[in-house]
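User: My advisor, Dr. K., asked me to get a structural model of this assembly before our group meeting. I'm new to this, so sorry if the format is off. These are the inputs:
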Amino acid sequence: MSLDYVKFSNGFEKFMPKEYRDMVEHGPFGKKVSVSQVGSFKEVLEEHPMCAGCAMTLFIRLAMVAFPNPEDTITVGTAGCGRLAISQAAIPFVYGNYGDQNGVASGLSRGLRLRFGDKPKDVVVMAGDGGTADIGFQQVLHSWFRKERFTTIMLDNEVYGNTGGQESGMTNRGAVLKMAPLGKKFEKMDMLQMAKVAGCAYVATVVPNNPRRVESVIKKAVLIAREVGSTYIQAYTSCNIEYAIPTDKVMEDAKTVENDRYQFTEYVSEEAKQYLAERYGYKEFLPKPAAAIPNKA
Amino acid sequence: MYLVADISIEICAAKSCKLCTQYCPEANTILYSEEMGKDQGFKYGSAYVAVDRCKGCAQCVWVCDNMAKNNAIKMIMIDQLPKAALTDNITYGEKSTTAVLASPVVG
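Assistant: The format is fine. Below is the predicted structure of the whole assembly, which you can bring to the meeting.
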C-alpha cells in the first residue's frame, strides 16, 4: 500500500516480464497522470478476457487512469463481468462474495484507517447492476446509511450479462432479453434518489462517451470519500452482447442513451463542496463573492 | 485471420487529436508516438496500434470517423499488414512511446 509495492525485489529485475518492467518504470504510480495523456504511459490495466468493444471495459480503463493515487487504492468487486478486468490491474483487488462487496469494503476502509491513520488509502467498489442494486442491495444501502467512507461505482449494463441475459432491477421497463422473453414488467430502480436519501455526499451519473467527464467524476468521488462520506457513481456501460449492439456502434449507443435517459447529473453535498474547495482547490465549489450573487430585492 | 485496426500516419500526424487513445476499451493498445509523425516531416506525432492487444472491435474507427472526422483508421486483416507495432517492441519514454515495427504474423 505504498510506492514500495511497485518496485523490483532485489536481484529479480532481469527476470521480470516486459509488462511488469514497464509498469515499474513508466506506470502512473507516484505521478499525476490524466486521461489526455493515455497512450504515452503504461496503464495499470492489463490484458483481460472481456468481450471486444465492451463499454464497461472502457469505463474501467478510464476509472483506473483517474484514480488520484493508484498506489494507495484498493478495488473491491464481486461476481459479474467487471471483475474480469478490474482484477487484471496493478492495483490490489478484493473479491467479495456476490452481494458482499460493500460489507467487505466497509471493513477494509475502517481497517486501513486504523492501520494508516490520516494517510489517505482509497477503497473503490466497482460492481455491476446485479451486484449493487439486486443481490448486494441490502449491504450497499446499509453502508451508505452508515456513511462509510469509500466510493461505490455501479457498472450499469441493465442486464445480467455474464449469465445469459436475465433482467435486473436496473433493466428498463419493457426490455425484452434472452432470459426475459416477455419483457420486464417493472420500472428501472432509481438508485440515484436512494443514494441521496441514504446520505451519500456525492452522487453522479456518467456515460463513458466523455472520457474527461468520467475522469473528473471519479476523482471527485474518491477525494470526497476520503473524509466526508459515501460516494456513488452510476455509469452506463452497455452490454453489446445481450443488447446486440455492433461493437463499432457502442459509442453511438452510449450517446443515444445519454440523450435519452442517462444525462449527466451530479449532486454534491454542501459539506463535500466545502471540502473539495478548501482541501483540493476546486474553484467551482468556492463560495461565490458577494457581488456575483444576484440581488433578489 | 482476423481484423485489427490500422492507423494512417499521414492523416493522423496532420491532426493528432488523440481521441482514439482515450476511447479504446483495451489498455495500452492504441499508443502515441511523437517520433512516428515528426520523423516523416509531419507537424505532430501519430497514434499507432499494438496489434497483439487489439481485439478488433472497431470502436476507434467510429470515433475517428464520426467524432474526430479524420477517417484515419481502417480495419485490416492482420496478415495484410506489412509491418506493425507489437508490445514487445514498444518502449515507453517520458512523454511519448516509440515502437520498432515488425511483421505481425510469426512464421
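One thing worth pointing out at the meeting: The CA atoms of residues 15 and 44 of chain B lie 7 Å apart.

User: Perfect, thanks a lot.
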